[in-house]
Amino acid sequence: MNNINKILGVVLMLGSVFISTMDRISIRVSVAIVEAGYASGGTNVPQFAQMNEHPTGLLVYFMFFVGFILLVAGFPGSYKKNRNHGYNKEV
After folding, report:
1. What is the pLDDT of residue 32?
2. What tens digit of pLDDT does each residue of 36-60 get?
3. Structural domain boundaries of the chain?
4. I need a surface site. Which of 25, 35, 47, 59 has the fewest CB within 10 A?
């Protein structure tokens, strides 16, 4: 189960980064298309074609957070817990 948590955590974290990157790329491409259309007509680009930076959606942050939790949960317990587990008996 630990390996599944690690793999799923990494996939979710990378997926959230991929979604965020695709969102930013699509915004830049759409602004470039609008600017190119106005530039071909010989007019200046109107004010509404300027790129507005909007915050990334909550899905990206939620996916990254869940991925991080799963990644941490995929690793076994601390060294101190494992060390004391086998030496509780007195000789």
Report:
1. 80
2. 776 666 666 555 555 566 666 788 8
3. 2-75
4. 47
What tens digit of pLDDT does each residue of 74-90 get?
Answer: 887 655 555 555 555 55
Q: Which tokens hold the place of 75?
A: 């690793």
- Alpha-carbon gap, residue 37 to 48, rounded angstroms: 13
Residue corresponding to tokens 């690793």: 75
63-68: Cβ within 8 A, 24+ apart: 63/12, 63/13, 63/15, 63/16, 63/19, 64/12, 64/13, 64/16, 64/17, 66/9, 66/12, 67/8, 67/9, 67/10, 67/11, 67/12, 67/13, 67/14, 67/15, 67/16, 68/9, 68/13
Q: Where are the alpha helices (H) located in 1-91, listed in sequence order?
A: 2-40, 58-73, 79-85
Alpha-carbon distance of 6 to 72, in angstroms, equals 8
